[in-house]
């Protein structure tokens, strides 16, 4: 099910997102977009960056490797779909899926690396000429430094998440939740470290299991796995709600 990302952002006019492309070897690079442009206008801007066609272009929104939604309404404002930095716009050119019978044999058009390098109208050449993406050494160095600093911060925060410690979890777009740490480590099929938390209230997504594997045990909807960056360890006693005192 598609999920629209609407989170608080200190910059109320622009968002910064990485842009990746499905049909060439260009790595994701960071771009800044006004939130009041339409999806159709966004696609026109992405034409130059990706070499795709706005008319047959599909734009998907990712958080890490997780698909959040597709930007299907060309008349909608970009801010309707995304209102925070750090996400990724993935461009898929669907042109190849139109205009032919799937049962027909179509000769595949291919270029050698040397032939592609010699083309002056290619996406790669455009990026080289304008020093964008992986062809901007300073930009790539900054991105790598940012990734390194984030990885170090994740390791540092994970070291504080001792099992059975009380904690408070803050994830953008969700209410702040309190609970007890029950797991600290990797998850099968996932990249990075995750903290398993048993919440004080049924505000989680599971019972301590993911993909059929149990990492800890708790009642249904009391468990969740989050990034160490979302976890604050401390003296967080369970909150008490006295309904008798409410009017």
Please supply descriptive tags for the structure shown above.
elongated; alpha+beta; five-stranded mixed beta sheet; 21% helix; Ubiquitin-like (UB roll); 12 strands; 25% strand; 247 residues; 2 domains; SH3 type barrels
Task: Explain how this protein is built.
With 247 residues, this protein is an alpha+beta fold. It folds into two domains: 14-135, Roll (Ubiquitin-like (UB roll)); 162-233, CAP Gly-rich-like domain (SH3 type barrels, Roll). It has five helices and twelve strands. The protein has helices at 39-50, 78-81, 113-118, 123-129, 137-160; strands at residues 14-21, 29-34, 57-63, 66-70, 88-93, 166-169, 177-185, 194-199, 209-210, 213-214, 223-226, 231-233. The strands form three sheets. The chain has a five-stranded mixed β-sheet with strand order 2-1-5-3-4. Strands 11-8-7-6-12 form a five-stranded antiparallel β-sheet. A hairpin with a 2-residue loop joins strand 9 and strand 10 (213-214). The longest helix has 24 residues, at 137-160. It is elongated and about 65 Å long. The two termini are 38 Å apart. Residues 1-11 and 96-104 have low confidence and may be disordered. One of its GO terms (biological process) is tubulin complex assembly. Belongs to the TBCB family. It is found in: Cytoplasm.
């Amino acid at each position: 099910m598609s999920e629209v990302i609407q989170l608080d952002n200190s910059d109320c006019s622009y968002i910064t997102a990485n842009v990746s492309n499905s049909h060439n070897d260009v790595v994701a690079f960071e771009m800044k977009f006004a939130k009041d442009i339409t999806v159709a206008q966004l696609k026109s801007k992405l034409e130059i960056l990706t070499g795709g066609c706005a008319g047959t272009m599909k734009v998907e929104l990712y958080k890490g490797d997780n698909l959040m939604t597709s930007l299907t309404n060309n008349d909608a404002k970009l801010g309707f779909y995304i209102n925070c930095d750090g996400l990724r716009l993935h461009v898929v050119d669907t042109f190849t899926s139109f205009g032919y019978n799937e049962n027909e044999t179509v000769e595949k058009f291919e270029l050698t690396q040397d032939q592609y390098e010699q083309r002056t109208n290619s996406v790669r050449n455009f990026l080289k000429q304008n020093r964008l993406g992986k062809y901007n050494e300073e930009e790539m160095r900054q991105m790598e430094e940012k990734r390194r600093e984030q990885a170090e911060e994740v390791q540092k925060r994970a070291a504080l998440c001792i099992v059975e410690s009380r904690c408070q979890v803050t994830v953008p777009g969700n209410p702040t939740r309190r609970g007890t740490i029950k797991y600290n480590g990797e998850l099968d099929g996932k990249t990075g470290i995750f903290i398993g938390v048993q919440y004080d209230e049924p505000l989680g997504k599971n019972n301590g299991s993911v993909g059929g594997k149990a990492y800890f045990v708790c009642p249904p909807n009391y468990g969740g796995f989050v990034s160490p960056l979302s976890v604050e360890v401390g003296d967080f006693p369970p909150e008490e709600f006295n309904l008798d005192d409410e009017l």
